[in-house]
TrEMBL record:
Its EC number is 2.7.13.3. This is histidine kinase. It is an enzyme of class 2 (transferase). Signal peptide: none annotated. GO terms for molecular function: kinase activity. SUPFAM superfamilies: ATPase domain of HSP90 chaperone/DNA topoisomerase II/histidine kinase. Pfam families: HATPase_c, HisKA_3. The chain crosses the membrane at residues 15-34, 46-65. Keywords: ATP-binding, Kinase, Membrane, Nucleotide-binding, Phosphoprotein, Transferase, Transmembrane, Transmembrane helix, Two-component regulatory system. Residues 241-335 form the Histidine kinase/HSP90-like ATPase domain.
């Protein structure tokens, strides 16, 4: 189970199972605490104790390479296993043994806490890596399909013209190659701007989002209205991470409109205040349908939600009445006043 040669699809299963075990442990622990406070006997008359024992035991098996975290989970598992047995045949000795295990676990939790934080954050880290791999795959696909293929085609045309020993054909092939190189230079600049939008640092958030909306409108025949509110110089301009996250959400929302919405008109509202930044993208396209399940969200929607949650914000996507979609992202700026004062 701890083999490092497992394939990514196989490695994802233990992470999902580990997250489920953590959730079961938390819910069962809450149930056990409530039962313990309302009962004069130590063993809770519920399924909480065997649930915690089973969940922590499985989680200990899944905790590879983290010895202290595994030992802590084993101590907790042993303590609640004794309590589970004690439910069937209550005795003071079993109570004392269970409390000894749990007391040892509470003491050992101090040195094991750094490794436990790793266990708790593995699911989130896995999701982040998965999204990064997805975007890297998209970037590799664009480079292969657009740039590499056309460059190889241009090379073959030049080779064919050279073999003909015809100056006119060679000149025409060189002119065609020159046009292709100019086009691919523009494609590479677009990909670079997508990966690292320097305009966010150079122009500021409001100007960058406005320029992005204008570019999307010009390239796809859309009408994109941009409404910027708030005083940008006082809206914590030093929050570059938040600025880039807002820009990425706007970029992904407009990309989804172009690819999936079949819309004609888009409204982008950006509100920059001292306490936070909000972005709302509304289109008149086909919409998301009634109550779309969150599990059915694609990578684009999940990426926008993750960017908002990474900065303590909120994200929502819903259908706008009879037609269209409303995407809203809110990013709080908790340290703005401290930044301005300093």
């Amino acid at each position: 189970m701890c083999s490092g040669t497992a394939r990514p699809a196989t490695a994802q299963q233990p992470l999902t199972l580990g997250g489920f075990c953590i959730a079961v442990s938390l819910v069962s622990g809450l149930g056990y605490s409530v039962n313990l406070l309302t009962d004069d006997r130590l063993p809770a008359r519920s399924v909480a104790t065997p649930s915690i024992a089973l969940a922590t035991g499985v989680l200990a098996l899944l905790t590879c390479g983290l010895r202290r975290a595994r030992r802590l989970l084993i101590l907790i598992c042993c303590g609640f296993t004794v309590l589970s047995v004690d439910r069937l045949a209550h005795s003071a000795l079993k109570d004392h043994v269970a409390m000894a295990f749990l007391l040892a676990a509470s003491v050992y939790a101090v040195p094991a806490w750094p490794e436990m934080k790793v266990v708790l954050s593995r699911g989130r880290a896995s999701a982040m890596v998965e999204r990064q791999e997805h975007h890297a795959g998209l970037l590799a696909g664009e480079l292969h399909d657009e740039v590499l293929q056309l460059l190889a085609l241009t090379r073959r045309r030049l080779d064919a013209a050279r073999l003909l020993d015809d100056p006119g054909a060679l000149r025409a092939a060189m002119e065609d190659a020159s046009r292709t190189l100019d086009e691919q230079a523009g494609t590479l600049r677009r990909i670079i701007a997508t990966v690292s939008p320097a305009t966010v640092q150079g122009l500021g958030l409001a100007e960058s989002v406005t320029a992005l909306a204008g570019q999307v409108a010009a390239e796809n025949g859309l009408v994109v209205d941009v409404d910027v509110q708030g005083d940008r110089p006082h809206a914590c301009t030093g929050e570059n991470g938040v600025n880039l996250a807002v820009y990425r959400v706007a970029q992904e929302a407009l990309t989804n409109v172009v690819k999936h919405a079949d819309a004609r008109h888009v409204t982008l509202a950006l509100v920059c205040r001292d306490d936070g930044i909000s972005l709302t993208v509304t289109d008149d396209g086909r919409g998301l349908g009634a109550n779309p399940p969150r599990a059915a969200e694609g990578y684009g929607m999940q990426g926008m939600r993750w960017r908002c949650e990474a900065y303590g914000g909120s994200f929502s996507a819903r259908s706008a009445g009879t037609a269209g979609t409303v995407v809203r992202a809110v990013f709080p700026l908790r340290n703005c006043r401290k930044t301005r004062a300093s």
